[in-house]
Design a protein that fits this description.
This protein is an alpha+beta fold. The protein is built from 13 helices and 23 strands. The protein folds into 4 domains: about 1-95, Rossmann fold; about 120-185, 2-Layer Sandwich (Dna Ligase, domain 1); about 190-315, ATP-grasp fold, B domain (D-amino Acid Aminotransferase, Chain A, domain 1), CATH 3.30.470.20; about 325-415, Glycinamide Ribonucleotide Synthetase, Chain A, domain 4 (Alpha-Beta Complex). Helix content is about 30%, strand content about 25%. Strand 16 (about 265-270) and strand 17 form a beta hairpin. The termini are far apart.
Length: about 425
């Protein structure tokens, strides 16, 4: 079969890499892909805009592509699945209506309230003045969330009025029409990437992301600085609660709104000291860098998994996983998540023992340069988490570009427990 992978980041490199391992897959068309996807067997990069829906459909029809999967949230929020479905074409991901679970924090909050899904108390504001008035009765810290898409960087944990007011002002000045003010949840963050065919919902291995730029979970939020899986400390009882209290009610809530949601339901959760889960946010696609930590452990043919989502047969699929651990460390350009340089030469990408997924790169095997803020995601696989992280660090030590930065403490909470 021929498949389409829509997107050009580290997550899409990992998707293409995983699909290339399937004997069912003949050719993978990555749109637009990146330098890393071009090195994957069976992959052809196509330099199209992922938001040029007519051009995408023409590619699918001309090349005889059987189905596709969408990596990033922007095409989903813009309605790419609706556009494909209207022309009888198969694409994994929710429709534009379903994608609101990520594209609008306020919409997601309403859905959770209707479905009885545990989440933080919140208020939604469309103007600055009433939002500022709300701050005067807030319990600190308070979470300020841009309502729309913000590439994982639209959240501020404000410790006081001044910083909350500054974040609010920036949201409205930046074009946000709504802002969500939310109580701060205490506990351990967990990412659960779940598959759904619209009828059942099946979680993948839970992972833990590290969102902030600084070690010790400090500094501003980013698109993610690293992740690891599985989570030994997440008890079976809590996993059952995640399924019964969050994933299944959310799917029923979507169904009650007349939405057939097929694809990925990503639940960003907080687990409190008693093991009770609550939703921090939902995303409508695979996480990055969680994908690079979870998919390498999946032993089930990923093309089979994708077909089960499209065919409505997820309840017949049994997922199998490799023994051991995966750790992913993101390597960024200097200045990220703010202003960063592009065009710096990268060396050492073919020398490490770990898997290297390209995110913000350009070039080919003879000459690589940086092209984005999050440049690489390096994944190590081993029998223990510490050993998997050692593989990451050994690999990164052989890579060089000016100003490269990465967090050296990914997984530090899990290592502290052991």
């Amino acid at each position: 079969m021929k498949v389409l992978v829509l997107g050009g980041g580290g997550r899409e490199h990992c998707l293409a890499w995983k699909l290339s391992q399937s004997p069912l897959v003949e050719t993978i068309f990555c749109v637009p892909g990146n330098g890393g996807t071009a090195t994957v067997p069976k992959v052809v990069n196509i330099a199209l805009d992922p938001l040029d829906f007519p051009a995408l459909v023409q590619l699918v029809q001309v090349q005889g592509i059987d189905w596709g999967i969408v990596g990033p949230e922007v095409p989903l929020a813009a309605g790419v699945v609706d556009y494909f479905q209207a022309r009888g074409l198969a694409l994994i991901g929710p429709t534009q209506q379903g994608a609101q679970i990520e594209s609008s924090k306020a919409w997601a909050k309403d859905l959770m309230a209707e479905a009885g899904v545990p989440t933080a108390k919140a208020g939604v504001f469309r103007e600055l003045a009433p939002a500022l008035a709300y701050l005067k009765q807030a319990i600190w810290p308070l979470v300020v969330k841009a309502d729309g898409l913000a590439q994982g960087k639209g959240v501020t944990i404000a410790p006081n009025y001044a910083e909350a007011a500054q974040a609010l002002t920036a949201c409205f000045a930046g074009g946000q029409t709504q802002v969500v003010l939310e109580d701060f949840l205490v506990g351990e963050e967990v990412s659960v990437l779940a598959l759904t065919d619209g009828r059942v919902v099946v979680p993948l291995l839970a992972a833990q992301d590290h969102k902030t730029i600084g070690e010790g979970d400090t500094g501003p939020n980013t698109g993610g600085m690293g992740a690891y899986a599985p989570l030994d400390w997440l008890t079976p009882a809590t996993l059952v609660k995640i399924q019964k209290l969050i994933l299944e009610p959310t799917l029923r809530g979507l169904q009650a709104r007349g939405i057939t949601y097929r694809g990925i339901l990503y639940a960003g959760l907080m687990i409190d000291a008693a093991g009770e889960p609550a939703v921090v946010e939902f995303n409508c696609r695979l996480g990055d860098p969680e994908t690079q930590a979870v998919l390498p452990l999946l032993q089930t043919d990923f093309a089979h998994v994708c077909k089960a989502i499209l065919d409505g047969t997820l309840d017949q699929l049994i997922l199998t996983w490799a023994n051991g651990y995966a750790a992913t460390v993101v390597v960024t350009a200097a200045g990220y998540p703010g202003v960063y340089a592009k065009g710096d030469p990268i060396t050492g990408l073919d020398q490490g023992p770990g898997l290297i997924f390209h995110a913000g790169t350009a070039g080919d095997a003879s000459s690589w340069t940086t092209q984005g803020g999050r440049v690489l995601a390096v994944t190590g696989l081993a029998k223990s988490l510490r050993a998997a992280l050692d593989v990451c660090h050994q690999t990164i030590a052989r890579v060089h570009f000016p100003g490269m930065y990465y967090r050296r403490d990914i997984g530090f909470k899990a290592l502290d427990r052991t």
